[in-house]
Specification:
By secondary structure, the chain is mainly alpha-helical. It is built from eleven helices and six strands. It folds into three domains: 224 residues, Ubiquitin-activating enzyme E1, SCCH domain (Arc Repressor Mutant, subunit A, Orthogonal Bundle), CATH 1.10.10.2660; 47 residues, no CATH class; 51 residues. Helix content is 50%, strand content 7%. A hairpin with a 2-residue loop joins strand 3 and strand 4. 10% of the residues are buried.
Length: 351
């Protein structure tokens, strides 16, 4: 149901997420949908170029080897290794490993018969035309984490303001529908996901991870790892996450029992500190919340204001000014920002 999908996307996602979702649907069902294994080879060859050449070339275009930051420091210094681009070479085993694995992974997704003849794949990949890289001007690449966080916050607030500025999303739904492939064009497309399995040497999963990890290591002149080591690393990721999640869930449930049983004393509850690698398990009484004061009132992080009755937004703001001597600087409901004068053009001098 394309309209239902568009309405759900318009309603529940930020501007950035909506764009990413729509582009992914267009890409998977339209622009990059392969009809043959040859198309899978073309896709993997372009993926190689994008991941190991173009992105690095763009990074070096924005931050050359001798780039100096706004603080007067060398950008490529300390823990930051200056990368270099990789030029595809069909005679390089690692390069062909990537094409071999990526092509077969994509073929599996679209129910296309896989080809395990490396020689045939090598003959086809050299025929693929790859557009010449041209650096894009105007692309912002942040110098540090602070700039990243500030930009993400700005995008989040701008998306919220745009979303809440619309009285209806009918126009937005129509815009989304116009960007999606037509339903009749994708009726016959069947796709299936991959279920990661590191111990199956025939599914290309570890082949792809090994090739990708070592190619990125080569970008940054980091020592490569052999398949067995990468397999051990990949194998340790999933069980560790599941085990830790189960343990934390159990500890939380123990504390919930105490809450349900109406234990009032704070010393009945416990904070837990756990390191499964050591292993170490430590427990302590919770620290009382920090008490703060405004005017003559004390409050903690857990205190709430209770406002009863129906009122407009203006009445709501005036209520806090009158009753609590407070000026709200933002009003939100769930993920939606209802009021935020900081991002409005006309704000009073008092605010």
């Amino acid at each position: 149901n394309p309209k239902e999908f568009a309405e759900r996307t318009a309603k529940n996602h930020s501007e950035y997420d909506k764009t990413e979702i729509i582009e992914n649907v267009k890409r998977i069902l339209g622009e990059e949908h392969p009809n043959s294994f040859t198309d899978c080879i073309k896709w993997s060859r372009n993926l190689f170029e994008q991941q190991f050449h173009n992105t690095i070339a763009q990074l070096l275009y924005n931050f050359p080897r001798d780039h100096i930051t706004s603080k007067g420091e060398r950008f490529w210094s300390g823990n930051k290794r200056c990368p270099h681009v990789l030029k595809f070479d069909v005679h390089n085993k690692l390069h062909l490993d990537f094409i071999f694995a990526a092509s077969n992974l994509l073929a599996h997704i679209y129910h296309i018969p896989q080809i395990r003849d490396r020689k045939l794949i090598a003959e086809e990949v050299v025929k693929v035309h790859v557009p010449e890289f041209k650096p894009k001007a105007g692309i912002t690449i942040h110098e540090n984490d602070e700039q990243v966080r500030a930009d993400l916050e700005r995008q989040k607030n701008m998306s919220a303001m745009r979303k809440n500025g619309q009285s209806a999303n009918d126009v937005e739904v129509e815009q989304i529908l116009s960007r999606l492939p037509k339903p009749d064009d994708v009726l016959d497309i069947k796709i299936q996901p991959h279920e990661f399995e590191k111990d199956d040497d025939t599914n290309f999963h570890m082949d792809y991870i090994t090739a990708t990890a070592n190619l990125r290591a080569e970008n940054y002149e980091i020592q490569r790892a052999d398949r067995s080591k990468i397999k051990r690393i990949a194998g340790n990721i999933i069980p560790a996450i599941a085990t830790t999640t189960a343990m934390v869930t159990g500890l939380v449930c123990l504390e919930v029992y105490k809450f349900v049983q109406h234990h009032k004393k704070i010393e009945s509850y416990r904070n837990a500190f756990v390191n499964l690698a050591l292993p170490f398990f430590g427990f302590s009484e919770p620290v009382p919340p920090k008490c703060q004061k405004y005017l003559d009132k004390d409050f903690t992080l857990w205190d709430r204001f209770e406002v009863k009755g129906e009122m407009t937004l203006e009445e709501f703001i005036e209520y806090f000014k009158r009753e609590h001597k407070l000026v709200p600087n933002m009003v939100s409901a769930g993920m939606s920002v209802i009021y935020s004068p900081h991002f409005m053009r006309q704000t009073s001098k008092a605010q």
